[in-house]
Amino acid sequence: MSLTKSELNKRMLELRNLRKLYEDQRSQNIKLRAENKELKLSVQVLTQTVTELLERVAKLELRNEELLVMTFGKKKVKVEMGTGTIFFGNGDRDNGNGDRDNIFEKSVF
């Protein structure tokens, strides 16, 4: 069984197209792998940087709290049960004038 000249030319054209497509896809694959490798390294560096910065922020927050305690003294904490609200300050909700001096509220919900 032999192929006709037109059938042979058609199959050769398909083969050339597939080979060209394969080469293009291979070069794109290599390029994408290199980019992926660079991005993974970048993610590692950024993750390490974020971790270091979070540690520094935690240390600075602790230091800030220590300085606040050294400067203003320790604040009393009052928790209202059932409301989910914590009051920081002298423990009074009202100073007699209707003002709420020295009270800071923080909801736990």
Layout of SSEs?
Layout: H1 5-72, E1 76-80, E2 85-89, E3 103-107
Antiparallel strand pairs: 1-2, 2-3
Can you walk me through this structure?
By secondary structure, this protein is α+β, with helices and mostly antiparallel strands. It folds into two domains: 1-72; 75-109, no CATH class. Helix content is 62%, strand content 14%. The chain contains one helix and three strands, in the order H-E-E-E. The chain has one helix at residues 5-72, and strands at 76-80, 85-89, 103-107. A three-stranded antiparallel sheet has the order 1-2-3, with no helix packed on it. The longest helix is centred in the middle third of the chain and has 68 residues, at 5-72.
Shape: rod-shaped
- Give the amount of beta strand, in percent: 5-15%
Spatial order of the strands in the main sheet?
A: 1-2-3
Helix content percent band = 55-70%
- What gyration radius follows from the Cα positions, in whole Å? 35 Å
Terminal Cα separation, in Å?
A: 82 Å
Main sheet makeup: 3 strands, antiparallel
Which structural class best describes the helix and strand composition? alpha+beta
Number of helices: 1
N-to-C SSE series?
A: HEEE
Count of discrete domains? 2
Q: Give the beta-strand count.
A: 3
On the 0 to 100 scale, the average pLDDT is 81
Low-confidence regions: none
